[in-house]
Design brief:
Blueprint: H1 2-21, E1 23-29, E2 33-41, E3 62-71, E4 75-76, E5 79-80, H2 83-101, E6 107-112, E7 118-127, H3 135-143, E8 154-166, E9 169-172, E10 182-193, H4 194-206, E11 210-216, H5 217-225, H6 228-233, E12 235-240, E13 245-251, E14 254-261, H7 265-276, H8 280-290, E15 303-305, H9 313-316, E16 319-321, H10 322-347, E17 356-360, H11 369-377, E18 380-383, H12 402-412, H13 438-443
Parallel strand pairs: 1-6, 6-11, 12-17, 17-18
Antiparallel strand pairs: 1-2, 2-3, 4-5, 7-10, 8-9, 8-10, 12-13, 13-14, 15-16
Helix pairs in contact: 2-4, 5-12, 7-8, 7-10, 10-11
Length: about 450
Amino acid sequence: MTDLYQSQRAMRNMRKAAMQRGVVALLDIGTSKIACLVLRFDGADTLRDAEGIGSLAGQSGFRVIGAATTRSRGVRFGEIDAMAETERAIRTAVQAAQKMANTRVDHVIACFAGAQPRSYGLAGDVEVLGGQVDEQDVARVLASCDLPPIGQGREVLHAHPVNFALDHRSGLGDPRGHVGQRLAVDMHLLTVDESVIQNLIYCIRRCDLELAGVASSAYVSGLSSLVEDELELGSACIDMGGGATGVSIYMKKHMIFADAVRLGGDNVTRDIAAGLQVPMAVAERIKTFHGGVVATGMDDREMIELSGSSGDWEKDRRQVSRAELIGIMRPRVEEILEDVRALLDAAGFDHLPSQQIVLTGGASQIPGLDGLAARILGHNVRLGRPLRVQGLPQAATGSSFSSVVGLALFAAHPQDEWWDFETPAERLGARSLRRAFRWFRENW
């Protein structure tokens, strides 16, 4: 645990150094595409938002000067599967973005969707030593949290203080400077499969780049896709990617739960390829141009040319109705949404004051998906795309870019995490597990 603490602090310092140098690259390593943005920072001193611990900042301090995407290779379920292929794809994306930005980049901040994330809610409390809360008291209360036994081969990816209470006053964003006797904290801990992170670090180093930060796609997608009220009152962001669907829940501008379903848009494409007996590339094109999940009477009459290239003239000139295509796509989309529903139920999403759900990610663009999702998830559902970052190239404003745009916000205005404070390392023991969300019901 102490090694992790040190490595996260080292990445934080690297991020600051890269920002002072003025340029950093962002990488979204997805199953279907790898996206890269190059950011130029206008002044590192303007970047930290002074609103409080972990508060979300508005757009300021950076410009997007380069952007590129390439087809992903060697990634499955949002995790690196074939190292050499992923390395080539990352190099292609970074070089294209560097060329557009007309500058060289040494440091990257990356996000990924897989690695079997698990959420924990932690709680801790301490006596305030001087009567007024200072940085040391915050560090001590974070160190006092009972750490869950996260298991072998797991690593902490995010550790956010999400709520402070001083004596009988709960809901404090930043307790520093407040007068009181007893300080308590609720913290959200997100753990992932350690080998996935190690593979990511190794792959990025093979590309002659330094990793200056790493984040969960589910987390950063929420940062870019949810509006202020949704972040404040309690909302879920469903990031539907190619190989995995990330679920994050926000409350009081903090992520309080994250998980992922190992299914995505690529599964729908594979079903079409198998059902219609066409190559994956043809299935992807048919899904993009003709796909949907709600059939009407018109769809029986709308015929789709399969135009394959197998060499068999009869087979290549086949036609299918759009209704038949929808019949193949809908069961898989329903399965993904049912799995998402199970995660939201397990997280206690029904206890939030507002229950807005925002669908984002490339696979969320299937026509009719929002209506089907509203029926299966039983809440207000809207389609989301990246907000809060002006000046994006037109190609990077769609919902499939929510993760990489959220990563820009994460890079420029990181929410405070446990390793940002001088926490006494010997206090970080593994003691008892606090059920995720128990503190949420008690405090809000």
